[in-house]
Design brief:
The structure holds two protein chains of two kinds. By secondary structure, chain A is an alpha/beta fold. Chain A contains six helices and six strands; from the N terminus they run βαβαβαβαββαα. In chain A, helix 1 links the parallel strand 1 and strand 2. Chain B is built from six helices and six strands. In chain B, strands 1, 2, 3, 4, 5 and 6 form a six-stranded parallel β-sheet that branches. Classes of the chains: A alpha/beta, B alpha/beta. Chains A and B meet through helix 3 and helix 4 of A and helix 3 and helix 4 of B.
Chain lengths: 200, 246
């Protein structure tokens, strides 16, 4: 069974995106081993002059690298990815690049109707930047709108059609992850240029 | 004119801070510019709300009082920075000093893109409801290859770059002047309209007005608050308030 790290792009306890990743962990436990990883309580990112990383970032990076893939559920703040998630990704793309070639599945939950469409677009763009170089599952948008009403008291998605489509999405992600293992690109120019900068 | 400038990096050797410091010195005949540090701003977290502490209130008041704001953004992961986004989240959650504020976006990067992608994303963020800034359109100041751009005194070396930046700064002064004039007119018209809507749709007593979201918005500030509470996750489609957010 594939092992995935699931990240909710929040530091808020009551977050619907946290509910979503915990729900997927439970619901899809027969097709994937999913481990939820917190991104809260990291210092604000800056390029440390000696290229050192906080110990927690090193540990998070190792977990990301060791996983078969990553699932990220992002809220949307101001038409964009929340700073707390941007921050975790900045730490995980400086001096060490654990996301390189890792398959990533993007989703999100919002209060309103739009289901984090703009944040997901931005997140996709970030993950494809050379510093991250992730392999984002294409043609996949999972948008949970009206998130405050989307979960029942046990934290399950109340809409059974949405839940079924989630099952199909995870099944496709499993296929994507397996194929991705054989996909080796020879080019590394953009990331190498970044890594040369990091050596200065 | 009084501007404030923020560099979107807390690194000790930030080139974007070098850029705003240069702008502050070089254009002091155009405007008095104060550079606001963001090093002490904690990561945005609704569960640990620091809106009413001095760190955020200082930024809030200075931005609200300024005629315009200059934002210098680095580019990481093909977008703007978490450090800057966190500040913007604090300043669009329970306080909204950027509402109707003229903003200029600039940026400096190591390689040739000059923060092209970061500036587009920052523009999108600044124009979102809950932030509501008036970002100057048109010319983009993209300072690429920044490691060769400054001399030892922290001044831009290339005269053509300086000339272009000067034209951008002069346009920004004009942008601020035009918006200041419009602002007064718009705000007055808005308040009249909101008052008219409230009267037309209000029920017999004030208490009953709460059943209809638009009728219970008695001031433009209420509308902003309502949208802001939802703006941390998108809610613009749902609230009638979005139409009256400037």
């Amino acid at each position: 069974m594939n092992h995935y790290i699931a990240i909710a792009g929040t530091n808020r306890q009551g977050s619907n995106n946290l509910k979503l990743v915990k729900y997927i962990q439970k619901r899809c436990s027969n097709v994937a081993a999913i481990e939820v990883m917190s991104i809260a309580d990291l210092p604000v990112f800056y390029k440390t002059p000696d290229h050192s990383l906080p110990k927690r970032v090193v540990e998070m990076g190792e977990r990301v690298k060791a996983a078969d893939g990553v699932i990220i559920s992002t809220p949307e703040y101001n038409h964009a990815v929340p700073a707390v998630l941007m921050n975790a990704l900045e730490w995980l793309s400086y001096s060490s690049h654990p996301f390189k070639d890792q398959p990533v599945l993007i989703m999100g939950a919002s209060y309103g109707t739009l289901g984090t469409s703009r944040a997901q677009q931005m997140l996709r763009k970030m993950l494809e930047a050379p510093e991250l170089s992730a392999r984002v599952m294409p043609n996949a948008e999972f948008l949970v709108g009206h998130a405050n009403d989307a979960f029942d008291d046990q934290g399950n998605l109340a809409d059974s059609q949405l839940a079924d489509s989630l099952d199909r999405l995870l099944a496709d992600f499993n296929v994507f992850v397996d194929i991705n293992r054989d996909l080796e690109f020879k080019r590394n120019d953009a990331l190498r240029r970044i890594q040369n900068l990091e050596k200065d | 004119m009084k501007f404030v400038a923020i560099a979107g990096s807390i690194a000790p050797d930030s080139y974007n801070r070098k850029l705003v410091e240069y702008i502050r010195r070089h254009y002091r005949d155009l405007a008095e510019i104060e550079v606001l540090p963001i090093n002490d701003v904690p990561m945005f977290n609704e569960d640990h709300n620091v809106t009413h502490t001095p760190v955020i209130q200082n930024l809030n008041q200075k931005i609200a009082a300024a005629d315009g704001v200059i934002l210098a953004t680095p580019e990481h992961d093909h977008t703007t920075t978490a450090a800057l986004k966190s500040v913007l989240e604090w300043l669009s959650y329970q306080v909204h000093p950027f509402n109707q504020k003229p903003v200029l976006i600039v940026g400096a990067s190591y390689f040739s893109q000059g923060t092209s992608r970061a500036q587009l994303d920052l523009r999108q963020i600044m124009e979102a409801p809950g932030v509501g800034a008036y970002v100057m359109p048109g010319d983009e100041f993209l300072l690429g290859n920044v490691r060769e751009a400054f001399d030892d005194q922290g001044n831009l070396k290339d005269q053509r770059t300086v000339d272009f930046l000067t034209s951008v700064m002069k346009k920004f002064v004009q942008w601020v002047s035009v918006l200041s004039a419009m602002d007064v007119l718009n705000l007055a018209a808005e308040q009249e309209q909101v008052a008219a809507d409230t009267t037309a749709s209000a029920s017999v007593t004030d208490e009953e007005a709460d059943t209809d979201a638009s009728a219970s918005i008695t001031t433009v500030d209420d509308a902003n608050e309502r949208a802001a509470e939802g703006s941390k996750d998108d809610q613009t489609a749902d609230t009638g308030a979005s139409a009256s957010i400037k």
